[in-house]
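cron nightly-structures :: item 1 of 1
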Amino acid sequence: MTFSELNIDQDMVDALAAKGIIEPFPIQAQTIPLALDGQDIIGQAKTGTGKTFGFGLPIIQRLGLHPEPGVQALVVVPTRELCVQVFEDLSQAAANRDTDVVAIYGGKAYEGQIAQLKSGAQIVVGTPGRLLDLAGQRLLNLGNVREMVLDEADKMLDLGFLADIEKLFAQTPATRHTMLFSATMPGPIVALARRFMTRPIHIRATDPDEGQIQANIKHLIYRAHSLDKDEVVARILQAEGRGKTVVFTRTKRAAAKLVEELNDRGFNAAAVHGDLNQEQRERAMAAFKAGKKDILIATDVAARGIDVEDVTHVINHTIPDDEKTYLHRAGRTGRAGKTGIAVTFVDWEDLHKWALINRALEFGQPEPTETYSSSPHLFSDLDIPTGSKGRLKPTPAVKTESAPRGTRSEGSGSRSGSSEGDRNRNRSRTRGGRPAGSPAGETAPSGDVSQAAGTHDGGGTEHHDGNSAPRRRRRRSRGGAPTTPAS
């Protein structure tokens, strides 16, 4: 089947073909004909199965080749990363028609987004907070919205956006065409659909006999020691056939630490987490998609926005909090029908979390395999070449230079040698210091060089000839007469 057979306009078929997209996925084949007729839809399918074009192509076509200026379609997404991804997909599909798409999300300057709205953009893709912000300032008018899509609805619920979603729905006409897409359908999402949708059709683009775990993803569960995890990751990154890899961490700090560690080991990694500003996050994501970076370290904030077809491995550096998060993390690989590998590390203190995930997803592996960076099964499970180490490049050698003769070593209070110290003490007799054998209470004049070998009071400069003891510039004593060093 082709998109033409689904009655998609030729200009969009050509735009997709230019990117190598020819055949529709099951969710697209089932959704597009109904959406083109204006049917409200609840679409349920696993992540990475093409939901964006399932709703995107119909709303673009329903607006027409030359839509009037002004917001007529609204797509609401939970995260900034997903907002950018959906924006790019819709812009690609509308490349050959007079339809402007704008991305509205936080972390970016208002001015550019407002300018695009004022210029007449017809399709808005946005996150709830920024959308409500602009609507509250009367810079975004939703009164003429004909098409509305709620994407990743279950993630909206997890992030606490349900009240914001209801406010957005309230600002749009009741006669709008509405589509809701989600990987799972918890009760509050079903209630939301009943309240704001008109006789929706529920579409499930999955095999009824298929489990929640995608069959094209190999899942490996290891009980790993926290101090050995980075070594294990470094070996996995050398597996045969490894392509782009996403490593998930629980905290922003852990993500920042891991990306620094992997880059130091010679790998090519970037990070996406909440401590980075939006420009840095977008730059890292763009580098990953373009292949300039082949490893992306991310917290769960980015899980829904990583839509890259050639991700071969996902590594859970820390176990997800629940089975839904696990599915969304693992769903970054095995996309578009390709195969993938998901590796999960379970800390000793997180075994209870794994027990819950194992039961919910029916893994049948109640005990994770105890694994270390030297474990033979690690190499065989992931096709890692024998003898692979945890570093692609050697640790930079630290150059240590010996201290000049007659000076103190850095950070210590010892002299460089007893004989040198003796010579310096002998020289000090002629420089106004306390002669050897003089009374203990007698001290050197305050303006002169101290007895400590190779040190000075801050006003003199040491000179070394490489062989002899340090020579010093002529100094003036307190009385003003020059003091000449002993030869």
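cron nightly-structures :: done
DSSP finds 16 helices and 18 strands in the chain.
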